[in-house]
Amino acid sequence: MNLALWSLVGVLLGGMLLRMPIGFAMLASGMAYLVVKQQDLGLVAEQVCNGLYNSYVLLAVPMFVFAANVMNAGTVSERIFDFCRILVGRMRGGLAQVDILVSVIFSGMSGSAIADAAGPGLVTIRQMLKKPEYTRGFAGAVVVASATLGPIIPPSIPMVIYGLVSGASVGALFLGGVLPGLLMAILMMVVVHVIATRRNMPREDKIPWREWPAILYRGALPLSMPIVLLGGIYSGAFTPTEAAAVAALHALLLAGVVYRALNWRSFIGVVQESARASAVITLILAGSFMLNYVFTAEGIPQAVAQWVDGMQLSRLHFLLMVNLLFLVLGCFLDVSVLLLVFVPMLLPAVNALGIDLVHFGVLVVLNMMIGLIHPPFGMLLFVTKALTGIPIGEMMREGWMFIVMLLLLLLAMTVFPQIVLWLPQTMGYGLK
What is the rounded (10 degree) CA torsion for 21, 24, 26, 28? Predict the structure, then answer.
């Protein structure tokens, strides 16, 4: 590496060690590169503005964030919980099974793992901790694991960002996540059943038939959101970006008008939290545009492609290597950084090997979800600990079976691409 690149790496690592917000660290490292290269610092503003204002798909991110926050502020999570309790509550370890099914449904609305853990997950943990058969660690582990369904089952904020950097069809990415997401949910329920049977965990009390109509009615309207979103996208009524706005409006009408669970005070709080979260993502995006300019100027993606070509790697060997890389990086770095900084460096090699971008994208997102549930970064672990006080060590001791299950599914998806590609190809997308 030349002096300019060393300056970039030094400033970036220094900023991270000093706990500087990652977006600022990325921008500062890009400026350091330009200073050493004796180039115009105005390139920073040019790259950021061009990247942000020429990316229509980015509008989906704040809309999905807003929709998830509105649903968490209203009573949507509680309504879905009661609905799922009818369906799977009588299974062994019923509350844990309910949490997984709730996550499947909520995933079709929010597209965010954090929103899933902070909303429906918190409701389920409170219910589980009322019963002595559920340990704190097990309750937290189930919620943390099931929250990873959020960005796999469509809609998905990470898939929107991946579509931005790769040029892959967001609609095809959404479809590609459906079957893996459902397989994840089924396997999680199997893991819960094994643990619950071994520990003799309770079934939920049987709900009288006379209460079913009211519970089903309360849960019916929230269940309509995934149908509206996916039906609208794949019927051609609106684009995935426009679907995000529809999701936000749908959530606002449910929580504010139909259920009257959102007053002006809570609405302002939702807007503030959504703006804060969207600003964090946008700042990281801005920094990534600058870093991607540097990497392109230095020819790093092409060098990676040549290196891979020189190693004579097959598609499978390359994907296994990428899985290992992202599993390691996921221990230390945020999902947005991995998507926006490292994925663009690998894309030339992906294209050179003829790997389908949709297959690669879903694999990358699943890798990052696994990174969210194991230390030292483990963002979902830290979020759950902050909300409930459950120690991370207890969640990790109870959650290792879920991590093993996700790793086995990741391996199966790597070896058998049709797990991801079957549904998009069936729906007529022109995939490789």
Answer: -140
**Cα(268)–Cα(354) distance, integer angstroms:** 48
d(CA 106, CA 98): 12
- 26 C-beta neighbours (distance < 10 Å), count: 28
pLDDT tens profile 142-188: 999 999 998 899 888 889 889 888 888 888 999 999 999 999 999 99
pLDDT at 74: 65
Residue 174, burial from CB neighbour count under 10 angstroms (0-12, 13-18, 19+): buried
Closest C-alpha among 289, 346, 339, 324 to residue 163:
339
Decide if pLDDT at 281 tops 50: yes
Q: Helix or strand or coil: residue 112?
A: coil
- pLDDT at residue 383 tops 50: yes
Comparing 158 with 59, the larger pLDDT belongs to 158
Nearest to 149 by CA among 99, 194, 193, 190: 99
* Whether pLDDT at 126 is above 70: yes
DSSP symbol at 56: G
**HSE of 109, CA atoms in CB hemisphere, 13 A:** 30
Measure the CA–CA gap between 332 and 378, rounded to whole angstroms.
Answer: 8
CB 292 within 8 A of CB 344: yes
Give the DSSP H or E segment for 279: helix 264-298
Give the mean pLDDT of 254-277. 84
> Rounded to whole angstroms, how far apart are CA atoms 313 and 325?
15
Question: Is the alpha carbon torsion for 255, 257, 261, 267 positive or negative?
Answer: positive
**Distance between CA atoms of 63 and 242, rounded to whole angstroms?**
9
The alpha carbon of residue 19 and the mean position of all alpha carbons in its chain are separated, in whole angstroms, by 23
Do residues 95 and 124 touch, judged by C-beta distance below 8 A? yes
Alpha-carbon distance of 13 to 18, in angstroms, equals 9
Q: Name the residue ranges covered by the structural domains of the chain.
A: 40-426
Encode pLDDT of 396-425 as tens digits.
Answer: 888 899 999 999 999 999 999 999 999 998
Per-residue tokens: 411:
């391996």
Identity at 325, one-letter amino acid code: L
State both tokens at 184: 């994840």
C-alpha to C-alpha distance for 75 and 71, rounded to whole angstroms: 7
257 DSSP assignment: I
